[in-house]
Amino acid sequence: MRYDLVPMDRSHLEGVLAIERACFRQPWSEQVFVDALYNDTVSLIVAQAEDGRVLGYAALSVILDEGSLDKIAVDPACRRQGVGEELLKVFLRFGRANLAFLTLEVRA
């Protein structure tokens, strides 16, 4: 499967929301994602297939030298193909280069 990791924009919103609803019992609302897109402390990336489909996404919040990986999700049909790992690696590299701390928020 071929895909690129790109910054999220509004064109990705429908695909991200579909994955969000499929993956989480208490999904973020559309408004939360829209607000995050325009928040300078939040970075959102998506794994985008060649056909434009969103395969997964991740969200990182940064305040000063501390980061929090707030979301990472992959379309259930695309799991176990390295998409989540690649999304995670982007923010891990950023964290190593720019942050004192990087945490992952996990909910059961």
TrEMBL record:
InterPro entries: Acyl_CoA_acyltransferase, GNAT_dom. Keywords: Acyltransferase, Transferase. Its EC number is 2.3.1.-. The keyword Cell inner membrane does not apply. Residues 3-108 form the N-acetyltransferase domain. GO terms for molecular function: acyltransferase activity, transferring groups other than amino-acyl groups. This is GNAT family N-acetyltransferase. Gene3D superfamilies: 3.40.630.30. It comes from the Bacteria.
